[in-house]
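[Meeting: bench + compute handoff]

Bench side (C.D.) handed over the final construct sequence. Compute side (W.E.) agreed to return the predicted structure before the next meeting so the bench team could plan truncations. Sequence as handed over:
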Amino acid sequence: MVVIQNEKIAHIPVLHVVKEEKRYEKLPLIIFIHGFTSAKEHNLHFGYLLAEAGYRVILPDALYHGEREEKVTEQELQFSFWNIVLNEIEEIAKIKDELASRHIIDEQRIGLAGTSMGGITTFGALTQYPWIKAAVSLMGTPCYEIFFQLQIDEIRKRGYQLPLSEEELQKEKERLAAYDLSLQPEKLKGRPLFIWHGQLDQVVPYHYTYEFYEKIKPLYAQNEAHLKFISDAKAGHKVTREAFLETVNWFEKYV
């Protein structure tokens, strides 16, 4: 039987999903990050199937989401996007460290995945943590600087007042560059990476992600099986069942 515990790990609200008979065993770990304006509960289907396959699965709530929701306007939330992403990258390590201190995870077998904002977070985390053994990005983008500029352009187009000066915008770009995997793809170091993206995505542009995939292909020339991109010609900004099942298969193969 699979057990779902609502608990706090490193003071972060999470759903902890694991087979009951394996609760106190040292298991491979998968952390799954939800999308913008979503919450941990919305990805329980991933947690269930991965737990069934023998993993310990952690689904955290990102800052200002789920149990951490605060009274902020939609505009304030939009402007907090990158702070949420970078905070989540930091908290991934805190979750891993606490679970390691409990001696219930195999630190050599850790996977990371996410949808949309969670996929963006996953790409960024790969620039920071060599202990991530394999990763999956669903509808994410590794191009932090480009996506940031697209967001700024969209805000201006809508006539909103930006809360940052030109100088502050430049500093923010520089801050994001440290997490931009498209600027430092060598940090992948051949780790298994599965990317899924719908060609009709109107939220996170498909073509930048596909260009990144084409760019990193030579880095996987010695082990092509470690890199996979599924391009769905009919999908928009919504994960399909195929993507969901492929994610589970990916971790079963590489974590």
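W.E. noted at the follow-up: The helical segments are 44-52, 74-79, 81-101, 117-126, 144-157, 166-177, 206-216, 241-254. C.D. will use this when planning the next construct.
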